[in-house]
């Protein structure tokens, strides 16, 4: 019984300490104008990912983006997911015309944009432009 209590106490200490570790991956969240404005105001690197659930290109982009944004160099990157079908006004406000659009920002300055790209190398270059 004492062994079990010791193991539970050790597990609690480990869990508590893991919660205080810094994040080593990009922060993904739904797109809102407020989230974009906040990230821009803070001078963060930003990627707006305009997707549609029915889009095969978008589905191909997603694992590439997830793999790259999990790297430590993108720990400050904010990825904002925008639904092409339900956020039409936001899509138009950013000047996008189709789903599978990636828009890169360095703070409040747009530094790159791609449409329909599933090439890992060019997506990596787009992400690097945000840093």
3D architecture notes:
A five-stranded mixed β-sheet has the order 1-3-2-4-5, with helices on both faces. It starts with a helix and ends with a helix. The protein contains five helices and five strands. The protein has one domain (23-128): Glutaredoxin. The chain is α/β, with parallel strands linked by helices and 131 residues long.
Cα-based radius of gyration, to the nearest Å: 18 Å
Report the average pLDDT across residues.
Answer: 86
Return the CATH class: Alpha Beta
Give a count of the beta strands, DSSP E runs of length 2 or more: 5
CATH homologous superfamily assignment:
Glutaredoxin
Shape estimate: globular
Q: Order of strands side by side in the largest beta sheet?
A: 1-3-2-4-5
Instruction: Characterize the biggest β-sheet.
Output: 5 strands, mixed
Low-confidence regions:
3-22
Helix/strand class = alpha/beta
The SSE order reads HEHEHEHEEH
Measured distance between first and last alpha carbons:
52 Å
- Number of helix segments? 5
Helix fraction, binned, reads: 40-55%
- Into which percentage range does the β-strand content fall? 15-25%
CATH level-3 fold name: Glutaredoxin
CATH-defined architecture: 3-Layer(aba) Sandwich
Number of domains: 1
């Amino acid at each position: 019984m004492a062994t079990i209590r010791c193991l539970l106490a050790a597990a609690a200490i480990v869990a508590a300490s893991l919660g205080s570790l810094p994040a080593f991956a990009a922060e993904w969240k739904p797109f809102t104008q407020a989230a974009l404005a906040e990230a821009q105001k803070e001078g963060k690197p930003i990627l707006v990912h305009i997707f549609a659930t029915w889009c095969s290109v978008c589905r191909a982009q997603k694992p590439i983006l997830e793999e790259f944004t999990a790297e430590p160099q993108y720990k400050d990157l904010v990825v904002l997911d925008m639904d092409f079908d339900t956020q039409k006004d936001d899509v138009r406000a950013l000047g996008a015309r189709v789903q599978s659009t990636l828009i890169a920002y360095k703070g409040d300055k747009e530094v790159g944009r791609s449409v329909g790209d599933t090439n890992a190398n060019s997506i990596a270059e787009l992400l690097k432009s945000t840093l």
